[in-house]
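Quick one: structure for this chain?
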Amino acid sequence: MRVLLFGPPGVGKGTQAKMLSEQLGVPHISTGDMLRAAAAGGTDLGKRAKAIMDSGKLVPDEIMIGIVREVLASGRAAGGFILDGFPRTLPQAKALSRIFEELGIREFKVIDISADDEEIIRRLSSRLVCPKDGRIYNTETDGLAPGDACPECGTPLIQRDDDRAETVRERLKVYHSTTEPVIHYYRASGVVLSVDGTGSIDVVNREIKLMLQDSHPV
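Got it. Here's what it folds into:
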């Protein structure tokens, strides 16, 4: 089972990746995990990536692609994988196609979880976080507001800068301009399965699993 997972920020992609990883018995491989593992492993690419990350800069495609190649060629990914957060751009997608060709990976599926921009903005801008334990709450369903005490530990809740409506709009603009062309690239190959991400977590998860079963992936 080889799956590339796509979706705008706030659509629940990370949650679905973790659930599918457990349900399908394949590793969830995210860009963050790959970079941390490479840095900790002390490989040449990992050392270069760590130096760049420590300076606060973005890891360039050349290094990121090399790290992805290392991970997919390793035993960890031999039985399948859920790749989350890569590719984000068209050049990355074309590089991944070359990696797949090198490794003999011919069968895979792209899951595109979608939701309307306004729904994404509503979801993220209503999210509150406890800065002490990382618990997430919702202004709508939990009846809480920024500055209210965390129900678990009493720490004042905050709204992350990334979750403010104006910031979310900018994040969505970047997603539409850089990542949506990647989905079109894969759609031309007939490997994209589109899922409505506005349902509950369980409903979206069930839809993804049914689509994967119907598509008979290897």
